Amino acid sequence: MVKLxxxxxxxxxxxxxxxxxxxxxxxxxxxxxxxxxxxxxDAQVRADGHRxxxxxxxxxxxxxxxxxxxxxxxKTEAEVSALREREQAAEAYSAHPALLRLQELExxxxxxxxxxxxxxxxxxxxxALDTNGARGK
Length: 137
Hints:
Layout: H1 2-9, H2 19-95, H3 97-112, H4 123-136
């Protein structure tokens, strides 16, 4: 090829009629290689872009899953803590029934502050007394 180039470079197209054809073939070969290289680079860039996008989505999904897991863990801890507090309250109410009665009275006081609240307390017990009292008369 080097020898051929020396010959071709030293001569004009009139010396060798196949020179224009050879130059056209070389030009098409260079264009084809350039086009193929450009397409390969474009494909690589697209693949890198897709890979980066997939990695970003995977990272976002991982962070979301970790955040959800943390939220579930915190919620579970809060529920366990609330259950322990209820257990302690139940033990206190069992040991001191007056505390339970005090809690009932505080709840009734809060209900009494609501204008539309209707409170019915122990009507069955009072009805039995009224029935027995009426019969006795």
